[in-house]
Request: fold
Amino acid sequence: MKSHVALLFLLVCLNSIIYAHSKQFAVLVATTKSWLHYGHQSTVLHAYQTLIANGFPRSNIITMFYDDLANHPSNTEKGVIRNHPEGKNVYENVKKDYTGEKVTADNFIGVITGNGSLASGPVIKSSGPKDTLFVYIAGLSTYQYLTFPSGPGISSAKLKQTLEKLTKEKKFKKVFVSADVSFADSLFDEIAPKSRVFVSTSTALEEHAHLVYCFPEKNLCHGSLYGVAWTQYSDRLRQLKSGAKRTLYDQFNYVRAETPYTHVNIYGDLRVGQSQLQEFIGYKFEGKRDANKVGLALDSTRVLSDDMQSQADAQAMSKNQPEFSVGTNYDQQMSNEEKSRTVKNRDFIKETMKNIFDHLQNNGYKNVQYEKAEKPRKLVSENHSDLYEDAIREFHERCININENPFALNEIPKLAHLITSNVSLDDLKTAMTANCNENHRLTANVY
Reply:
C-alpha cells in the first residue's frame, strides 16, 4: 500500500515538474464583422473570459476580433456584448490585440508561428517544445478556404501546413484547434494523423453553423449551437471543479451530443484527444470539489470511476440548462424587406457564376457545366491548391466581396470544379472581367 502511495506521489511531482517547464498559449479569432455575425465575436470573447476565469495567463492570450459590436448602432446596450441573452458582458475587460482592419490572414499566420515580420502586432513566442497552443476560430469559410474580415483569406492547404509545422519544428508539443466555422471539415480533413495537431470542427461540407439565442426583432443571434456547447462545458467544469480531470475527447463528446443540427467531427492526431483539457485551457484554481454547491449530490465517501464521474458531470451540466431558440440560417434575423432583397442578391450571385461558366464553355471549355459543379466530389489536391486560392481571390476582387457574404461563399466551391477541370487562371480572369463590374460589388452587398 505504501509503495502505491509513494508511486502516486512521485507521479504527481513529475507532472508538476513538467507543467512548471511548459507554458500554455491561446489565439482566439473571429473571422467576420458586422451585426449580422454578432455570434462569432461574442463566442470568441466568451472563450477569452473562460480562459481568464480558468487562471490562463492574460499575457499568453492573443485576441483577434473586429470590435464593431459594442458601440454598433443596433446595440441597445452600449459597451455590452453577450453570448447569452441573460449572460454576462463578455466584452468587459477584454484584451484587444488585433481589431478592425488588422484582423487578417497574414496577421493570424504571423501570430501563431511567432513571425513578427509577418504580423503587425504581438505574436506567440513559445518557450520550448513542451508548450501547448490552443486556437479557437469562429466565423465563416467556404470550400477549403477560410475568410477574414479584411484582405484575402487562407487556403486549407496553407492552414494545414502552418499548423503541422508548429509541432514539426518543435515550437509546441501539442496544438488543439476548435473551429466553429462553415464548411469546417473541408479546412482540416487531411491534417497528418501523427502531427500532434488535434482539431474539433462544428460543420461538415456545405454546412453553416446552427444559430441560437436568436431575436428577429433585433436582427440578432447571440451565438452558435457549437459555441454555446463548448463554452457551457468549459465553464461548467470549472464550477464543478473537475476540469483538470476531463480530456479533449470528453469535451468533444459533450459538444457533439449538444450540437445535433450539424456534423461535429475531429481531425488530425487523434492521440492528442486523450490529453487533459487543463493542458490547453487552464483550470489553475481548482480546489476541493464542492458538489453540493452546484447542485450535484455526491456521496463524499464514494470514489467515482472516470466513466461514472464523466456521467455525473454531464448530468450536472444538463440540469437547469437554459432553453434557447434555434435557427437554421441568417434569414431569421432579417425583416421581410431585407429577406426580399437577400433573395434577389442570392439569385444575382448565382447568375453571375453561371455566366462565368457559360463564358468559359463558349470559349473552348466544353466540359465545364454549372449544373455539374453544384456539389464538389472531392477535395482540391495540393497540386491545384494555389490555383484554387488564386481563383477565389480573383473572384473576390473582380466580382463580389466574399469576406462577409455567406451567400457568395456558397458559390465559391464551383471555382474548385473549374480549377480541377484544368481551366487556366488567365481564361478564368477573362471570364470574370467579362461578366462582373462595379455594380456587382454594390448590388451584392446585402449588409
Q: What stands out?
A: The mean pLDDT is 83.
